[in-house]
# Entry
Amino acid sequence: MVLGVGRAIGEAMAVMMVSGNVANMPKIFGSVRFLTTAVASEMSYSSGLQRQALFSIALVLFIFIMAINLVLNLVIKREKK
# Structure
């Protein structure tokens, strides 16, 4: 379950293809741009402040995934007791 949640959050290429790879405000049934998509698609040509912003996005995603892993590990340990 932990690996599944981590993979669902970090699956950048699948999200990029499904969402249409367009930066728009989210609408129902419209194109959106997820954080993982932004990092994956813009890192190759970014520099300066844009590159720093992309690294910040990646750090936020890393912290989010670590928090999910921590919570799921605590739930699993409680169930074993």
Q: What stands out?
A: Residues 5 and 66 are 11 Å apart (CA to CA).
